[in-house]
Design goal:
Blueprint: H1 7-20, H2 31-38, H3 42-54, E1 58-66, E2 72-78, H4 80-98
Antiparallel strand pairs: 1-2
């Protein structure tokens, strides 16, 4: 049986990472870097990013560069509505921690080394 990931925490981790990297170089907002920082499998992450972009929580930006396989390198930015949702999801996770449904580590990215 495949382990099912918690949706609010997954969305929060993606939005948190993209938000933190807003002022960093484009390379830090690529799929591979988001995958490493959030601990979400690349195939699953593509689905999340696509749905979040379709609902205007994030936006994709074509860097104009090509990857090793010839595919376009896409960078991601968080939108204003994505920032609001990140904040709301963070409050939901904090409530879950107070109610002892979520451990303290759910509020951090795996790359934070909590």
């Amino acid at each position: 049986m495949r382990k099912q990931r918690d949706l609010p925490v997954t969305m929060y981790r993606i939005l948190l990472y993209i938000s933190r990297m807003k002022n960093s170089d484009d390379d830090s907002r690529r799929l591979v870097r988001i995958e490493r920082a959030t601990g979400i499998d690349r195939k699953e992450l593509r689905v999340y990013l696509g749905k979040m972009e379709a609902n205007e929580l994030i936006e994709s930006i074509d860097s104009g560069k090509k990857g090793r396989g010839g595919h376009p390198i896409i960078c991601w930015n968080i939108t204003e509505s994505g920032r609001m949702w990140r904040s709301d999801l963070g409050r939901f996770i904090q409530l879950g921690q107070r109610l002892e449904f979520y451990p303290e580590s759910f509020f951090y990215l795996p790359s934070d080394g909590f």
